[in-house]
Amino acid sequence: LVMCLVVCLLSACGKDNKNDKEKPTKKDNSTEVLTEEEELILLEKVLADTSDKLSLNSLIEGNLKTVIELAEDFRNKGVSHGDLLQEGNLGLMEGILTYDGKLLLEEFHSHLENSIRNAINDAILEQNASSRINFHVADRANELDRASIALSKELDRTPTLEELAKYLSLP
Predict the structure, then answer these.
(1) SS3 for 93?
(2) Which of 42, 69, 71, 126 is at a distance of 20 to 30 A from 87, taking alpha carbons?
(3) Contact at 8 Å (CB) between 111 and 95?
(4) Around Cβ 24, how many Cβ atoms within 10 Å?
(5) Mean pLDDT, range 29-48, rounded to an integer
(6) Which residues pair with 15 in a beta bridge?
(7) pTM of the predicted model as reported, rounded to 2 decimal places
(8) CB within 8 Å of 30: residues ≥ 6 apart
(9) Residue 168: left (phi > 0), alpha (psi -120 to 50), or beta?
């Protein structure tokens, strides 16, 4: 699945995955937008056989623009734009692979948008939680450092772990 994403992203960026030379691309450097009929045909093929890589890749590439548009809504929330796009792409692929509804494009697009938004939201929540934990750990380390300095001056020696724990009221 990840390899599929890499291939799709490289082809969407106009890069060849065998060597990093630029391919000639369209002026606006975007992927082909699928017509409703093309998208329905691809969706039908993928629903019938998820191992159909060509149809799956075409469906992913045809919906990359949705990821870009949705990722814009989440900018400046503590996660880099590139990471938002990566998470959105993973959500896109998950949305395609988990869709089991009818051949209705509106329902399909709604499912994709929800999957993309959820993936991006999860990444933001994870990043922010990680930042809070790191801040908390740094704060406790600074508190321990200050206590060690204060006890060292008071005792005229390096304090033991038990003395530091008692000084900080730790169990």
Answers:
(1) helix
(2) 42
(3) yes
(4) 5
(5) 85
(6) 22
(7) 0.62
(8) 65
(9) alpha
